[in-house]
Specification:
single chain, mainly beta, Neuraminidase, 5-stranded antiparallel sheet, NHL repeat-containing protein, 6-blade_b-propeller_TolB-like, NHL_repeat
Length: 356
């Protein structure tokens, strides 16, 4: 594919935050940016965790709310505004137009949603929104919806789909990835890492995104700054999981040596494999039809491209602040997806940008 290289505003307005459907600059999005996904018709879907809704953007830039009620939290299923979300975060869409949303719920006793006051742990559910607007729970709070003779889906965290319509779910606590085929068959797609080889035991790292190439390979975006039990810190990196195997380092650095502060490390370094560096804050990842990966490098205000051989380059940005046109810059990109083969959509605080 060939990227032409100009950035324009698709919906919303940079630096203007809030909640409003409509078209163009009349639309308002959250201040912290959103996760984004797209379907085969070129529609995009974004989560709004500040207003507890899921919103749709058509190819013409028209924005509407397809599920949830602005400002109203809940866990109800139903059609459209009958459904409620607690804190919608991640999002993905399959070839049939189904949308999957991770809904982060804080629980006191395992059954009643509670305010996040630091005294309880989050439980992630996966909600399914059909093309007709019906919202249901795909993986429930206790994680027992999908099951086979070997394993159960427990507290899913990050997920993605491929072109064939398979859904991949990562479970960090269990260090494994599940694959759910369109017919509902559940299988193992590999493990995150086996005792974190090469990274030391006790890595506290943050899985922020996944992408699948349709060939059985899954790519995992880990955000850095977790403390290792033996000292040092993890860095932002991309790991590759081949079918049935454990993850291996694909791009970025696995660890920063003990005694080296993360801020002392260069964070915007292009190169191949472990020679590349990313900021400690990277939120989104997507893949194109020929296997190139694109990472929303939030802390570097940039979009990074990774070729199938692991070579990393900076596609957009490096300085904070939105500048449109053929020499663009970005402000804290968080979500990224392809709306068409040569069209990237990027979420930033208050807006969705188009790069083509």
């Amino acid at each position: 594919m060939s990227m032409l290289g100009a950035v324009s505003t698709f919906a919303g307005k940079e630096g203007v935050y809030g909640y409003a459907d409509g078209i163009g600059q009349n639309v308002k999005f959250p201040a912290k940016g959103s996760a984004i996904a797209s379907d085969m018709d070129g529609n995009a879907y974004v989560t709004d965790p500040e207003q507890f809704t899921v919103r749709k953007i058509t190819p013409t830039g028209s924005v509407s709310t397809i599920a949830g009620i602005a400002g109203v939290q809940g866990t109800n299923n139903g059609y459209g505004t009958e459904a409620k979300f607690w804190s919608p975060k991640g999002i993905a869409s399959n070839r049939s137009g189904d949308v999957y949303v991770s809904d982060l719920i804080y629980q006191n006793d395992g059954s009643t949603p509670a305010v996040n006051d630091g005294s309880n742990l989050p439980i992630t559910t996966i909600r399914n929104i059909t093309r007709s607007g019906s919202v249901s729970t795909l993986v429930d709070v206790m994680g027992m919806t999908w099951e086979d003779s070997t394993f159960k889906v427990v507290n899913p965290t990050v997920f993605t789909t491929d072109k064939a319509g398979n859904l991949y779910i990562a479970e960090v606590g269990w260090r494994r990835i599940k694959k759910i085929a369109p017919d509902g068959t559940v299988s193992s797609a590999g493990g995150l890492t086996e005792e974190w080889p090469g990274y030391g035991r006790g890595v506290v790292s943050y899985l922020r995104g996944m992408a699948a190439d349709g060939k059985g390979n899954v790519f995992l975006l880990f955000e850095g700054h977790g403390l290792l039990s033996h000292g040092g810190f993890t860095s932002t990196r991309i790991e590759k999981v081949t079918a049935g195997n454990y993850a291996t380092l694909f791009a970025g650095r696995a660890t920063v040596p003990n005694g080296t502060a993360l801020q002392e490390e260069p964070s915007l370094v292009d190169g191949k494999g472990s020679d590349a560096r990313f900021s400690s804050s990277a939120k989104g990842i997507t893949i194109d039809d020929v296997g190139n990966l694109y990472v929303a490098d939030t802390g570097n205000h940039s979009i990074r491209k990774i070729t199938p051989d692991g070579t990393v380059s900076t596609l957009i940005g490096s300085k904070k602040g939105v500048r449109l046109g053929s020499s663009p810059s970005l402000d804290s990109p968080t979500g990224i997806t392809f709306a068409a083969p040569n069209t990237l959509l990027i979420t930033t605080p208050g807006s969705v940008l188009k790069f083509q």
